[in-house]
Amino acid sequence: MAIIQLSNISKTYQETKVPVHALNGISLEIEKEEFTAIVGPSGCGKTTLLNLIGGLDHPSSGRVVLDGTDITRLKDSRLIDFRLHKIGFVFQAYNLIPVLTALENVSFIMQLQGRPEKEIRERARRLLEHVGLGDRMHNRPNELSGGQQQRVAVARALASRPVFVLADEPTANLDSSATARLLDMMAQLNREEGMTFLFSTHDHRVIERARRVITLEDGKVVSDTKSLQYEAR
Q1: How confident is the model at residue 231 (pLDDT cuts 50, 70, 90)?
Q2: Is pLDDT at 233 greater than 60 in this prediction?
Q3: Minimal CA–CA distance to 194: which of 93, 68, 122, 86?
Q4: pLDDT of residue 232
Q5: Is the separation of the CB atoms in 138 and 88 below 8 Å?
Q6: pTM greater than the 0.85 cutoff
Q7: What's the rounded Cα separation, in Å, for the pair 230 and 168?
Q8: CATH code where residue 169 lies
Q9: Helices then strands (H, E): number in the chain?
Q10: Which domain range does residue 77 map to?
Q11: What is the Cα–Cα distance from 68 to 205, expressed in whole angstroms?
Q12: How do 61-66 and 69-70 pair as beta strands?
C-alpha cells in the first residue's frame, strides 16, 4: 500500500504578472520504505514537490495523502503536529538554530515530541557520531563548516524517528567520504526503522544508491524507474 499518494498535484505561483507553473498535474505513489531520488534540471519543480509533500506549502490543486491522512485538508495546528511526529526535513539552507550546539539542535525535535531525556541524549549523540561529528557536538553552527552543518541537519532530521524523510540536496556540500557515511546511515535506518526516504538531488552518488528514480521536467514526471534489485524484493 502506498504511504505517499499524490493526486493531480499542481502548483502555480502568482507573485508576478506572469504566473509560474511550478508543477503540472503530478500523480505519484510512493510505497513504505522506498529509497527514492527525484531528479531533473534546476527549476523543474523538485524542491516545490518536496515542500508540498512535507506540508510546507499548499498545492494550487490536487491532494497529498501521507500515511492515510490527507494533509491538504488539515488545519494549521494539526498539520504542525503531523509534521512534528511524522516527517523529518533536510533543508538546503540547513535551518539550524544558531544559539544551540550541534547536540542541542539534534535533540530539539525529540524534546518537542516529549521523548525521555535519556533517550534524547543517547540518540542525538549516536547520530552525531555516525555522521563523524562526535568531537564537534558541543559546537554551535557558526563554529562549523558548511559540510558539518549539513551533517548536523541530516542527524536532526533522522533523530525523531520520522515515518518520512524529505531531503533537499542533502549531500550538496559534502565530500565523497562524508556522503558515503551519510548514505550508509540512511540506508541502515531505512532497513532497520522502516523510514521512507525521498531525496531531491543532482548528486550521482545519491542517484546510484536510490532504488527508484523519478525525473521531472517542466513540472511534470517524464520518467519513473526502479532498480532491478528493488523490483526483485
Answers
A1: very low
A2: no
A3: 86
A4: 40
A5: no
A6: yes
A7: 23
A8: 3.40.50.300
A9: 8, 10
A10: 2-231
A11: 32
A12: antiparallel
